[in-house]
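Annex B, item 7. Sequence and structure tokens for protein A, then protein B.
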Amino acid sequence: MPENNQPEPNQPTGQPLSGAPSPEELEAAQAASEFDALTVAQAEVATLQAKNTELADSYLRAKAEAENARRRADEEISKARKFALESFAESLLPVTDSLEAGLAIKDASPQQIREGAEATLKQLKSALERNRVLEINPAAGARFDPHQHQAISVVPAAQEANTVVSVLQKGYLIADRVLRPALVTVAAPR
């Protein structure tokens, strides 16, 4: 081993190397770094809290708006149900007036009664059509449709099987939905 009073390169000397920070400086730098990180974290927390408050406010507003829309829709449905028949009832009022006027005539002849009944029936059919209540009255020989017709009986006939022979009672549709099927007799298979 050499004896030149020089420490070996990797041996601690107890003295800081020139240019290296002292432990106090290292502690101060670490504290400053932690302070900067804390300041950044606090700023992020404040930003997130503001964003949270903004989102909570937006949520409450959206919730209130949805509740108001639901309430308005419920009111509209209630009104629609309450007044759904108003238009139909208005169109039937002239029919009622005609019937009352016909009954008010004490000495009406059978011909007058018939004419009044025909006029009243015409008014009634017109009122039904205006409210989309349409007749189901298949012609003889028309194809039997189980969605619109109800077969009362199957009869032998000189026409194609499963076709309408006669209509016993008209049916009615309301807005493409069967209100009452037409009662019909149907041709039996040969």
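Protein B:
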Amino acid sequence: MSIIVRNLTKRFGDFTALDNVSLEFASGELVALIGPSGCGKTTLLRVIAGLETPDAGEVVLGGRDVGALDTRERRIGFVFQHYALFRHMSVFENIAFGLRVKPREERPSERAIRERVNELLALVQLQPLADRYPSSLSGGQRQRIALARALAVEPSVLLLDEPFGALDAKVRKELRAWLRRLHDELAISTIFVTHDQDEALDVADRIVVMNRGRVEQAGSPQAVYDDPHTPFVHAFLGAANRFDGHLGPHGFLADGAPAPFAADATGAACAQPDVEPAHAYVRPHDLDIHPRRSGRTDGIDAHVRRVIARGASVRIELVGRAGPLEAELERDAWRSLGLREGDGVIVVPRKWRAFAQSK
């Protein structure tokens, strides 16, 4: 089922949680909402579900304006961060709950309920736990039961609010891969809120970056990561080094740098006719490091403060005229430099993007 929100505004007192938000979600698409705390992600989810009433705007599900419908009538499955399972009910009864409370004329037979619950237990791979209670399950198992309960009523839309936020890193990684496989199998229109950028980049067909109640940018994970449209998106999504300086006809000149950054990496950004204050952003893997003894003069002077080796890559923390910086190299490339902590280096951005400061 397609989802369209038009000009949604929601205020809580003097705080504007949603500020004229318009978005479209294609049928069967899995979309991640990301952004800092308080940016409006969960409020948007709750408005779509009918758990909050917007001050303005509309929600359209499958071509129908659902503003007058309550949550149950919208056929939406909602999974909360903290599971919200009924402690006094077994796993089986938790999943069956939504089916048992349907109006009498819509309620399936007891046989149909049992068949549906057993199908879902198989889907989430927890058949042996049907008679257990939530208190005896792990966090990952509880979250899968919460998802099965949401799916029991055969929703047209599935909304997930930080579904793995309470789990440890290893379980999160396992469950997000499982969620992607499950979504591909069921093809339910799904929107999930997450603070974990890796989770969004790994799982979603599309991501929506929100900030202060507005949409900063929406697109495929790779497109938004490679082509951020605003300084906020560049700084928020993935690691980034920020250089202060000036943007002009010859490119970006960082404070403390002897020459502008190479102009071929920024395209239209180099066409600025006037010099104006700006910030340039460089991903850690796009920052080259050269020993100071190499004689390079086209970069920024710094020294190695700390080296963290992780698997095949090495993260290098640097400090210098531009402040703290972070670079990422393959382990063999780092070894070939022959550098140690405390050594002087010249850092040269290989790819960068500059944004003029707002006036």
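Comment on protein B: The chain has a mean pLDDT of 89.
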